[in-house]
Amino acid sequence: MRASFGLLALGLIAGCDYSGDWLFASPSGAPGVVHLGELVPAVIDSPEDIQNAIVYGEVGATGTAESGGVTFSFIGNGGSVCIWVDPELVYWNQSVAAVPDATNAKWRYPDNPFDDGDLDLYAGFAVYYSGSPGERMGDFEIRYEDSLGNQIPVDFNECTIGGLDVPFGAHAGRGSPESCTLTATAEGVSYIVAMDAWSTPLDDNRLAYGLLVAEGSCSNLRDTYWGEINDPQLLDECVILGEARDEAGEVLNDSENFELAFCTTAAGGDALVDYCETEAETYDCDVDHCFCGDPNDTPDLLD
Questions:
Q1: Which range marks the domain in which residue 97 is found?
Q2: Is 70 exceeded by the pLDDT of residue 232?
Q3: Structure pTM?
Q4: Quick check: is 69 in a domain?
Q5: In Å, how far are 62, 64, 105, 168, 190 from 21, measured between CA atoms?
Q6: In terms of DSSP H, where are the helices of 127-254?
């Protein structure tokens, strides 16, 4: 009787799906782990140099608990190297102020969050990287055992995310560009940069991105591109345009104009609202891909 009950229990377990696959984004055809090989930091002296140096690519979901992402290597030059990545597309919090003013009214249209993804930057000496480029993502954490036998983790990630009003930096979040400057790189030594795919767009599980690897600091890159313009949100989002691409690698329909509308709005004005209103009048967003969200989803403050 006891043996029969055990067999029944095993049968019930075998009949249930405990793999947890349904919890993870499904593979989309784009590889979940990508290695770009060795990249040479570009010399940036003009906005045209920036455009010529951009590397476009995409990464998909792994379909498992293993994180996906993109890696590449470069050789230290003894100076600073800027790593700058912009995942598709842009993201903003909709303003639902009961009494809108000039500041929040320009964000009154909702974003479409389903076409946005997120890449988090990490970098360090290649010898410290625990992953297998092109096969499995890793980190730069090394563990050693102290005199008491405790395992002590030491993080050798050298990519400190700048440009945010927090003491030690933080990852930028959905659809936002992320950059870091590796200062005083060791000349002739190999570095690995890991861009972890924190999330892929929910609409297709394919995360397109634009990447810059440049000599000098990221502050210098900003100055080269924007000169006297000082709005960080405008600066960062518009350094790389056209990162949203289709499966053939072509720029996604009107994405560059959408990004420019976002950038202009970040600096002031109503360009984004105008863009979203025109998009809603031109397309059926229930059928066509729209970059802006549905205004009918705006919370009703009177409810």
A1: 29-253
A2: no
A3: 0.84
A4: yes
A5: 11, 6, 42, 35, 36
A6: 218-226, 232-239
Give the model confidence (pLDDT) of 280-295 as tens digits: 999 988 888 899 998 8
Residue 22 domain flag: no
CA distances for 40 relative to 55, 79, 126, 222, angstroms: 11, 13, 15, 19
Reply yes or no on whether the pLDDT at 262 is more than 60. yes
For 37-72, what is each residue's pLDDT tens digit?
999 999 999 888 998 999 999 999 887 878 899 999
CA distance linking residue 292 with residue 302, whole number of Å: 24
* Residue 89: closest CA among 212, 9, 207: 207
Is the peptide bond between 202 and the residue preceding it cis, with omega within 30 degrees of 0?
Answer: no
**Most distant CA atoms of the chain, gap in Å:** 83
Please report whether residue 5 resides in a domain. no
Q: Kindly report the number of other CB atoms within 10 A of residue 174's CB atom.
A: 16
Number of domains in the chain: 1
Residue 278 maps to a domain: no
Report the pLDDT averaged over residues 228-237: 57
Average pLDDT across the chain, whole number: 84
